[in-house]
Amino acid sequence: MGAGVLAMAAAKESVGLEGSTNGQWWIDSIGKTLDEGISFHRVGSRQLAGLLIAAWARNDLKPHVGDVDAAAVPCGFGRAIGNKGGVGLRIRVFDRRICFVNNHFAAHQENVSRRNADFDHIYRTMTFNKPHGSTASATSVQLHKAVSANENQADEDRPELAEADMVVFLGDFNYRLDGITYDEARDMVSQRSFDWLRERDQLRAEMEAGNVFQGMREGRIKFPPTYKFQRHQMGLSGYDSGEKKRIPAWCDRILYRDSRSVSMPECSLECPVVAAITAYEACMDVTDSDHKPVRCTFSVDIARVDELIRRQEYGKIVESNKRVHSLLRELHFVPDTIVSTNNIILENQEDVILRITNNCETSKAAFEILCEGQSIRKQDGTKSEPVIRASFGFPLWLEVQPSSGLIGPGDTTEVAVHHEDFFTQEEFVDGVQQSWWCETTRDIEVVLSVNVTGVASTEAATHRITVRHCCPAPPAPPSANPRGPITDSPSDAVPGPKSSQSNHLLRSDFANFGSSEVRDLCGVRKRNL
Asked: What are the counts of helices (DSSP H) followed by strands (DSSP E) for the chain?
């Protein structure tokens, strides 16, 4: 088999693109044992090379289980090959997040640091395919669950596993026994001196030193070491007696972390998941592997909110508590207001005053004025389709002051509406106006929305004001030399009809000037006026 084929096979295993008939056999066999479809239903599974995790839920829990998602983290060569690593499932149970992670860490007696690193890599980088549903409730106790010693780690940098209400790690962790020979270990196993052996357990020492599985717990070990056995040999005599004589060890473990902290021993909404181990044992009669399987039974209390009861209690509080009743009324209360007019016509640069009166004698009114859209009055009297203003802002030609504020009980606020002349270089290209809102021969119309709310209300009342700018009709063109040069000579400033005509520039005359010249002409016009 070529190197390319091996690399491709390894890549497929590492990302889970290629299924496994062996893994499917296990899923089918477990499902058959659990009477799948009648008593249990499978909620999810994930495989990475030789690692497999699957979860089933009792049918009576089916309505309360959802948002199942899977993830995989390879820890093999280059952190890419799936012969070592972890596969996980995240499940929502009664609106609480519970994660299960199956692991296989680095082998060999001396690789303690590598095993610690494998755990750390899986814990920090395991990322599920989709964000957890919004129905799951975050709790304050989750702030105490970071694996890192850095307790001030930002929320966006926290591992997803740290956000779960309960995490269960299981699998072949490969931690061995130190400071003991093969024969000594066999003797202690035969005497069932498991506590003495545990004092030499690498995992226990690393956890006590805070190097791995920080904040997690394990049930008391009352079963013999689960590795290494000769296949198809029953009893404790089946420990490896070959040339290597590997020292018996508890390689296969199950650890967990729930919502508890020192200050919150009981299950509550602040400490929503509390677990207790009711059984932790090895299946010593299994002989198909050089490991003995380990199983753990948990009793889990989950705090949940009964939405029906919550709504009923909420209704009782609203009806009986005068303060709450008053606050709810404030959320819906909008003071009665009137405006002085619904139509404003701007014919020159004088201010037009819009008055907003608060008729309520007990509450302030908040107002905000927005521009809904702008249209043009055509020569035949019809209007163009209104153009919606971005962010509901005012056009450049219209000034509204103030556009928001508070009106005291029984008071009136005056709002000045003003037409503003403006000229910018961008409005002209080769002397021709390009911006349709600068059109001087057509009337422009906008609709202002005056939104009124109470100080604490979430509802609003709206007054709509039509503002129309009427442009004066252009004077008749001069009879002679309509395109003559415009100068700033004293003769042009002499009052009279001729002077007025000499300073008037028709729309077609802009074609003779560049942008900068038009800007200068505007300045000339202002000085002459």
From this structure: 10, 22
- Confidence (pLDDT) at 149: 40
Burial 312-328 (b: 16+ CB within 10 A, else e): eeeeeeeeeeeeeeeee
**Cis status, amide bond into 228, omega within 30 of 0:** yes
The DSSP string of 228-279 is: -B-TT--SGGGB--SSS-PPPB--EEEEEE-S-BTTB-S-SSSS-EEEEEEE
Residue 57 resides in a domain: no
Tokens of 380: 């035949």
Looking at the structure, do residues 347 and 451 belong to the same domain, yes or no? yes
Q: What is the mean pLDDT of residues 172-192?
A: 95
Least confident of 292-301, 382-391, 491-500: 491-500
pLDDT digits (tens, 9 = 90+) for 58-91: 999 999 999 999 999 999 877 777 789 999 999 9
Structural domain boundaries enclosing 512: 490-528
- Residue 520 predicted with pLDDT over 80: no
Verify that 386 and 420 share a domain, yes or no.
yes
Domain co-membership, 345 together with 458: yes
402 prior amide bond cis, ω within 30 = yes
Calculate the CA 157 to chain-centre distance: 13
The torsion angles phi and psi of 183, rounded to 5 degrees, stand at -65, -40
User: Looking at the chain, how many residues does it have?
Assistant: 529
Residue 397 and residue 461 in one domain: yes
Output the CA–CA distances (angstroms, integers) from residue 316 to 310, 311, 313, 329, 375, in the order listed. Answer: 10, 9, 5, 16, 52
Alpha carbon distance 82, 84 (integer Å): 5
Residue 417, domain CATH? 2.60.40.10
Instruction: Tell me if 514 is assigned to some domain.
Output: yes
pLDDT of the residue at 318: 78
